[in-house]
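Sat 14:20. Reprocessing the chain from the morning session after the first attempt stalled halfway. Input below, unchanged.
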Amino acid sequence: MMKPSEVADFERRLNGFIRAKPIWVARVPARLDVMGGIADYSGANVCQATLGAGVLAAVQASRDRLVRIRTERAGGEGLPVETEFSLEEVEDACADYASVRARFAAHSLASWAAYAGGSLVALLREEGIRLPTGFHLRLLATAPMNAGIASSAAVEIGTLCALNAWLGLGLGADRIAQLGQIAENRVVGAPCGIMDQMAIASGRRGKLLHVVCRPGSVEGRVDVPRGTGFVGINSMVRHSVAAAPYGDVRIGAFMGRRILNGLRKQKGLPPLSYLTELTGNELAAAERHLPGRMTGADFLARHRTHEDTATVIRPGTVYRVRGPVRHAVLENERVLRFMEALRSARNGDEAGCAAAGREMVAAHESYRDECRLSVPEVDALVEAVRRIGPRKGLYGAKITGGGAGGTVAVFGRREALTQHIPGIAAEHARRMGAAPDVFWGTSPGAFEFGARRYAPRAGGWTWQPA
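Finished this time. Tokens:
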């Protein structure tokens, strides 16, 4: 459910809508990448949590043929930002993702709207829909951007869920997640996997979502051991999956798959669709054929293509290859061990919780050493958790999502989290000169929450499930 303060803040803002028409509202959470991270685009198992922070998305049909998008921060922080465009522009964009991507990129003040506008274009293009009229889309965020908690995916899924309810499309969680990924890959230009969109659409309050990203299916949910929980601490280093470090690691992983498939072809073996079809032992037998580093030009001369439609190899760039491949394959196995440890610890067993925490720390070390996607500020947070350790109730911590900054996930006993996280955050604030966001709690996924339909009434609005 929405927090009472969140509901009240939002309903006050409904007064800016047209009184005569109903409003459809979706509420989606940010996510905490507990395990799996950047192995998602290599087909890994991943394990994700929903956070208490999130995004409210409201849609109302307008009286004209304009689409107006407005974003605001909850609590009145910062100024609202708006952009608008005509339905004709939207329909023209549906013919070519590149043109709508260029439109948003050309206007820096409207570039944030690519997540929402791109989701609209993906919905219309992929589902063959024509809008009957323009509409107002209002986004109210309690999750900060660029913090590594998938706030961009929350905007995408929130937009799609609100439009899904307004238009009565009946699209399911998997399809909504796919459309969100298309928007991020083809309009925003961020080469993400589907992990974030799946977690936000299909997550459940108080549980971890187990997704297999081949290409994306929910395998089940994992109970959080009794008496324990997960908390996120923002490193205050801004993160973006559209930035070069994340994309370069992805390119390196796809280069590695292409090289391994060449070897498999020589041996008469079927090609790998995903790196994570390999076991760790199988990779160990073949990884001597993978270069540690390779220029884009050298790779293209030998192999022509890395077969990834979401990224483009730059000839002059030197890419790490062996490390990203090792991370993907071994992270997939770490996720499976992590979930098994949690299941063994469902009643709060210390040994099982400690084993799960060790897998988180190993995942962080792989981000840092194999992919070079950690930063000192993040390492300091992970080390602070390790210093306190399992004996005092903090089992493990790791970098999340695309890395290169963003949020650190921490696993521990609830009382230990309450006792120690404020001190860790205060120590980090002294280093950074500003207090970090701490993400407590959990909330329903988009489809668990559903959607609301607000109808006008005298003096305000009344709502019912959409």
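The longest strand covers residues 45-61.
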